[in-house]
Amino acid sequence: MIGNLKMHHMTLRPQAIQPLLLALSLTFIAGQLAAEPEGESTLAPDRPNTLTDTTASPDAQPGPVLTPEPASELELEPPPPPESDALATNPLQPKTSEAPSADELRSLEALDRALTSKEQQVSEVQQQLIAAEDSVTQQDLTERLRALKDELEEQRRQFEKFAVNIDLRPFIDEEEKPFNWQDELSKLLKPIIAELENATKESRAIGELRAQMSEVEERKTLATEATERLQTLLAQEPNAALQERLQERLANWQRIATDSSNSYAALELQLNKRLEQRQSMLEETTGYAKRFVRTRGLNLVLAIAAFALVFIGVRWLANALRRISPAAENRFSTRLTTLLLHVFSVLGGLIAMLIVFNMAGDWFMLGIILIFLIGIGWASINTLPSQIETVKLILNIGPVREGERLVFNGLPYRVESLAFTARLVNPLLDGGVQQMPVKHLVGHISRPPGEEEPWFPTESGDWVELADGRLGQVIHQSPASVMLQEPGGAEVRYPADGFIALNPRKLSQGFRIISRFGIDYRHQAIATTEVPKRMRDALDKALAKVLENAGVEKPAANAIKAINVLFAQASGSSLDYLIHLDLAGEAAPMTPIIQASIQGILIDACNTQGWGIPLTHVGVHQLQVSA
């Protein structure tokens, strides 16, 4: 402390207490006389007591020594030059502070009286320590003196700080304490625990009374059993010595039983009184809520308002910047600025809440917010890699980029925009716009789309044939499902990704029907020349009528694009032909009828031409089992 008198220490051994009592008393008087000159009070602002002891070490024995301050250290500094000269020689010298007010002087007087009282207490304890003769008393007085001196030193610092009105930390050498997170956490939790204890005070008091009653009741029961046992022993008329000792123990246990019974009655009375005064759970909850709103409601409202003001203000600023330069919205710098503003909108709002609670001195709510933030920070450690990937997506530098093709939930999409929300678009799907948080795209990869790459295998109105053999027209397709209408009007619904997995064969732009037909070997001579030509002529004439009768929109001649009859192979029992029939998309609904008609038309042609159709011979062999 600035201006404090130096302290000197010596060790006082217990063996020398008695011989040195007189010397110590004389030294104490001399020290008091040396510390009380009138001029010294103006030199030492804290008016330190020059008495000290060797309490710096707990193991040292008390031995106060009275030493006056050396005169050399009490000399005043030379007076400063006049103000004009000082300013001329040192332009950096600060101006003289304003004169203290009357309130400040009254405060200093109050602090001075407190210091004087504390110094008197220290002096009294020092005198008691000098007069103490046993080591136990000396140890107690030493600990008390150490605590008083710590309090005195703290009061001196307060007086000095208030008197000079400057920051004294550069002049104070404080010991650096190692950081202990448990101590810091306990300080943070202390207001919260105190609030919880206050909220459950009545319930805990009732619980403690019931626990004490249970303990006292057990003691009363055991004491009663002991009394009955001793009375039984006395009824058997033991010898005089034993009877006297048993009577003594009986009186003791009867006293214990009586005391336990009285204690139980008193506890029961207290419990009943508390239960009568206790409010219902609803009333207690309502009362606590009212007290909370009355004491902390305004602080909470102000904190929420501060959070909302910062949050909405920063978000408005981010949107304003985006509206000012919409062309630069996709730049990396714009994305980074927007990201930082969104992050600060949350952090700044929380900081504003902390400032409000700190200014209001509401340590309970302040601790709640800090614990909440610590919990979020601790939980964020496990999700840090995912959060980094999310930030990369927002900045458009991740594995998913704007304008590229992305397969999401089994369906292709174009990444139209990436920010805090992602916009995915499939132009061929009804409702093919997906708006989602960008974090859902973590783990996906996009690629540039091909120039002619379709966004879906079909469009609404297309006729398709699926791998499961079903034929139908697409009447509705969305990201959820695809609806097919079969010939005849039946509707079938497929999940969109399941529809793609069935490899739909699109018939609307034209398709080909392939059929097989075989004739007998006896027509081998004309099998590659005359037979294919006549089969094609028969199909050309008959299929046109079949399509006209089926009601195909296009004229029959235009619906049939090409008919080809090709010799396929000479199989074991027939000469086989492949019939390729190319049709326009309008004929797709008639595919089953056309396939059946091809076989009928070729059979009619064989009958007209006299061609034989081979039969499949099946041999049945019966195995005779002998008895």
UniProtKB/TrEMBL annotation:
The keyword Chloroplast does not apply. Residues 37-103 are annotated as: Disordered. This is Small-conductance mechanosensitive channel. The chain crosses the membrane at residues 298-318, 339-357, 363-384. The keyword Transmembrane helix applies. Residues 49-58, 90-99 have a biased composition (Polar residues). Residues 1-34 form the signal peptide. Keywords: Coiled coil, Membrane, Signal, Transmembrane, Transmembrane helix. Residues 108-165, 199-226 form a coiled coil. It comes from the Bacteria.
